[in-house]
Specification:
The complex is a heterodimer of chains A (171) and B (100).
Chain A (H helix, E strand, L loop, with lengths): L1 H22 L3 H21 L3 H25 L12 H28 L14 H13 L3 H21 L5
Helix pairs in contact in A: 1-2, 2-3
Chain B lengths: L3 H21 L3 H26 L3 H31 L13
Classes of the chains: A mainly alpha (171), B mainly alpha (100).
Chain lengths: 171, 100
C-alpha cells in the first residue's frame, strides 16, 4: 500500500515537472524544472531498489548535465523571443499527427501485451539490499560487460575532446 | 500492487511528453532537455524490469544510457554555442544552413 502511494506521488510529480519543462516560457525555469524531474526520477529508482543508479542519476544528471545546460543558457542571449516564426500552425499540426501516431503505436503494444499470458519472474525472489545492489552492478560491469564499459569510456573521452574543439573561439 | 505495467505506462507518458516538446518547441536548448526526458523514460523502463526480474543487467544498461546522454549533452551544447557565436540565434527555424 505504501509502495502504491509512493509510486503514484512520484509519478504525478515526474509527469507534472516534465510538462512544466516543455511549457515554461523562460529557459532558466525549464532547466530548474528539469532538475526537479531528475531528482524525482532518482527517488523512483530508489523505490525500485536500484540505489546505485539513484545516486548516479543525482550526481551525473542533476549535478553535471544540468549545470552544463545552465552554463549554455547563461552564455546565450535569450532576450530575443526565440519562438517567433512565420506559420506557427503548420508545425503544430504535423506534431499533433506524429504524437497521435506514437500514441496509437504504444496503445497497440499495450493491448497486444494484455492479450498474452503473463511471464513469471525468474531468478532469486529475495529483494536486494543497497550493498548487494552496488556489488551486483559493479560485478556485471567489470566481468560480463567489460568491453561495453571500455567503449563507453572511449565515447566519453571522444565527447570531451569534441566539446573542447567545438567550443574553441576560432571555429 | 504496483506491477511493471504501471512503470511502463509512466515511462510511455514521459516519453510522449518529451516527444511533444521536441516537436512543438523551437528553442534548441528546450529541445535538448526534451531529449533528456525521453532518455529518462527509457531508463525507468530498464530499471523497472530489472527490479521485476531480479536481474541487475537492466541497471547496467541504464548506466550506459546515462553515459551516452552525458556525451550527447556535451557535444550538443558545444554545437549550440558554436552556432550561436556565428548566427546569434537558438531558434531551429533559422538553423537551415545544410537544408539544400
Amino acid at each position: 500500500m505504501s509502495e502504491a502511494i509512493a509510486f503514484y506521488t512520484l509519478a504525478a510529480l515526474i509527469l507534472g515537472f516534465a510538462i512544466l519543462v516543455i511549457t515554461a516560457r523562460s529557459t532558466v525555469h525549464s532547466v530548474l524544472f528539469l532538475v526537479a524531474n531528475f531528482l524525482f526520477v532518482a527517488a523512483l529508482y530508489a523505490l525500485l531498489g536500484a540505489q546505485f543508479l539513484a545516486v548516479i542519476q543525482v550526481v551525473v544528471y542533476a549535478g553535471g548535465i544540468v549545470v552544463l545546460y545552465l552554463f549554455v543558457v547563461m552564455l546565450v542571449n535569450l532576450k530575443r523571443p526565440p519562438e517567433v516564426h512565420k506559420d506557427p500552425h503548420r508545425r503544430s499540426r504535423l506534431a499533433f499527427v506524429l504524437a497521435c501516431v506514437l500514441l496509437a503505436e504504444i496503445g497497440a503494444i499495450a493491448l497486444w501485451e494484455y492479450a498474452r499470458p503473463a511471464v513469471a519472474a525468474t531468478g532469486p525472489a529475495t529483494p536486494m539490499t543497497a550493498s548487494q545492489n552496488v556489488e551486483q552492478v559493479g560485478w556485471l560491469l567489470y566481468t560480463n560487460y567489460l568491453v561495453p564499459f571500455e567503449v563507453a569510456s572511449m565515447l566519453l573521452l571522444v565527447a570531451m575532446v569534441g566539446a573542447i574543439i567545438l567550443a574553441r573561439r576560432e571555429l | 500492487m504496483i506491477t511493471p505495467a504501471h512503470y511502463t505506462v509512466l515511462s510511455a507518458a514521459l516519453f510522449i511528453i518529451g516527444m511533444i516538446g521536441v516537436l512543438l518547441r523551437r528553442n534548441i536548448i528546450v529541445i535538448f532537455m526534451s531529449i533528456e526526458l525521453m532518455l529518462n523514460a527509457v531508463n525507468i523502463n530498464l530499471v523497472a524490469y530489472s527490479s521485476q526480474l531480479h536481474n541487475a543487467v537492466g541497471q547496467v544498461f541504464a548506466i550506459f544510457v546515462i553515459c551516452v546522454a552525458a556525451a550527447e549533452a556535451a557535444i550538443g551544447l558545444g554545437i549550440i554555442l558554436a552556432f550561436y557565436r556565428n548566427k546569434e540565434t537558438v531558434n531551429i527555424d533559422e538553423m537551415n544552413l545544410m537544408r539544400w
